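Researcher: Going back to the complex we discussed earlier. I've cleaned up the inputs and rechecked each line, so this should be the final set. Can you rerun the prediction on the complete assembly and write out the structure?
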Amino acid sequence: MGLKKKICVLGLGYIGMPTAAMFASNGYDIIGVDVNEAVVSALNKGEIIIEEPYLDVMVREVVASGKLKAATQPELSDVYIIAVPTPIKKDKTADMSYVEAAASSIIGCIKKGDIIILESTSPPGTVEHLVMPILEQSGLDVYQDLYVAHSPERVIPGKILFELVENNRIVGGINHASAIKVKHLYQSFVKGDIYITDATTAEMCKLMENTFRDVNIALANELAKICEAMGINAWDVIRYSNKHPRVNLHQPGPGVGGHCLAVDPWFIVEKHPALANIIKLARETNDSMPEYVFARCRALLGSLKNKIITVFGITYKPDIDDLRESPLLELIELLEEVSGIKLRVYDPFVTKHQYLCETIEEAVKDSDLLILGVNHKQFDSVDFDDIYRLMRQPNILDTRNYWDELLLSKKGFKYYLLGKGAITEE
Ligand code: SAJ
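Model: Rerun complete. Updated structure for the full complex:
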């Protein structure tokens, strides 16, 4: 049969929605399933409720052409892709209840020859020890009758559609036949290379990719603290060290946000807490940064009592509107506990926040300290003369090494940099 398979995508979030749209635009019939009725009814009107460049256009097209439909329950299909969230619980272990529920919801639908793919980032062993036992309840012999694999996504928010196509991918099957089947399926739109392995190895790869980044950022943050204590500039150390052909120091900052780096390493720790020492310490180091920045603010101003503090940029990284796990929100929580303090936030990507100001002028008026939290491109071209005129005390704390120290000092600002110890400070 030349007919394309019907695919059921479970979970229409940051990964499920673009994946569903991408398969649909490549000619597959897709049924997208979500427990959230608002997501389902919006999608059936061709609308999405997440922000991602070009995704709205693509979704509108495939819904209009009838290739993508949404429902709250799975339908009989040939392929099932599980892309539901795996949030972290208070005890820092993965909450697998959504994966369990999604896998259970297809038991009545699956038949011999079907493909089942787990895309959700999961602790190593999930396909073998959680998903497979659930699929066995269908009465099928999972190894013989089904093709099952883990195929983690690697896309970066803001460039999801581009990276879905261009990035290399790993597919980990419960056996070789499963890996090959799933590889062929993704080759319908993936231009990058697709490497095949076993399911648990693929699960560990996904986690280690983000752990690699997290550990390296922790190293940079530790360097920043040491350099501040020694009165030197961590950013210079990083720049010059990176001239070495085999060194790639990462960048310090006010902490690590997003739903991946701050979460995934814990899924390895939960498997072997006694062995995962570096991974755990790196997580804790990155988690300590908002508190560290808070202490630096206090040291700069002597006391924060009754001061006005402005934060420019509160999203978890530049040029996106995503606030998930943003370390700047944590910094704001620490600041707002100070008595008499007044907080102001300016972020062109954010539409709703307790301290949000509409204009830069409003945000910096009478301020005692301006913290650059995230280096959105727009902060490149702010009018520093205006800001200087409006602030009560012209203090700037740049947590991203984004602004020009020389220029700002000439304009009369006291410029402080995270990762650089100033002799005159404190
Ligand atoms: N950060 C630093 N210093 C750095 C780099 C980043 O402090 O040198 C901070 C950022 O400010 C941000 C956080 O780390 O708060 C995470 O940002 P990111 O751009 O590194 O990563 P994410 O979470 O947006 O996306 C990551 C990506 N993983 C890798 O690059 C290894 C992406 O490819 C994954 O698909 C995604 O996680 C995911 O879904 O797992």
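Model: Worth noting: Residues 6-197 form a domain with the Rossmann fold fold (CATH 3.40.50.720).
Researcher: Good, that matches what I expected from the previous run.
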